[in-house]
């Protein structure tokens, strides 16, 4: 059995055991479960401290490459689409991005190889994190993605990534920390979820996961560790949820071992970035139809063609009928031609 097979097999078993253990712990509240969560958090923080690396911008591109931030953002967005197409879990996408970032921070790469590096990072993450029945063959994945790479090219890129990252891909991702922080909140402050449920759905890992995925495509935010990014996203919702948010935040900040200045900077950038993604118009915006230009246009067209002699009042009557503001017109049999007159 080759070294890669050993590594993949061990990685699947190890990662799944930890994921299942984390999910079991999150189901309960209590001192024992809280201690388990804190140990899980410490393990992930230690792994993050040891393995986390991020690309550095220099001269408008990633240092050592010709990859511009907008090119990077497009490839991460595409990678998210591919992850959804392959039906991978959100943790797989996050791990793939972390692997790609570590690689870009380690080697000098050209933009023409970026797509191959990205899809290979996602495939490696899937081999570690997904069940065998979910993960298709490399050939099938490439066919679904529409990539022009051959299986041999992906396998060669896999070998390069594994060699450069010393066969150690178990980076703690921001989504890992999202789940841990949420479980800690529910475990230590169970009343928070109850109060929130009376107002609106909150403490939603799915919402925070989507926000993390958006933030992972932003080059300004890749300078922050996953634990800092996750904590910033959660704190932004806590601020909206309860006036006593600072007590919950300070407890998580202490456990996450994040510096206050770094956290504040990350939180402000996340807030600004997520706000820029929201639509400019509110969801319940009211649009008013200005009939002035329509009426002028109707008159102009009516002069050119008698068949177009309609008035804007017809539109108003239509809206009135729609909202039952105008009684329907009575139509006599003499107004309806054809065979209906005989009925």
Automatic annotation (TrEMBL):
<dbReference type="InterPro" id="IPR013763">
    <property type="entry name" value="Cyclin-like_dom"/>
</dbReference>
<feature type="domain" description="Cyclin-like">
    <location>
        <begin position="77"/>
        <end position="163"/>
    </location>
</feature>
<dbReference type="InterPro" id="IPR036915">
    <property type="entry name" value="Cyclin-like_sf"/>
</dbReference>
<dbReference type="Pfam" id="PF00134">
    <property type="entry name" value="Cyclin_N"/>
</dbReference>
<keyword id="KW-0195">Cyclin</keyword>
<dbReference type="InterPro" id="IPR039361">
    <property type="entry name" value="Cyclin"/>
</dbReference>
<comment type="similarity">
    <text>Belongs to the cyclin family.</text>
</comment>
<protein>
    <recommendedName>
        <fullName>Cyclin-like domain-containing protein</fullName>
    </recommendedName>
</protein>
<dbReference type="InterPro" id="IPR006671">
    <property type="entry name" value="Cyclin_N"/>
</dbReference>
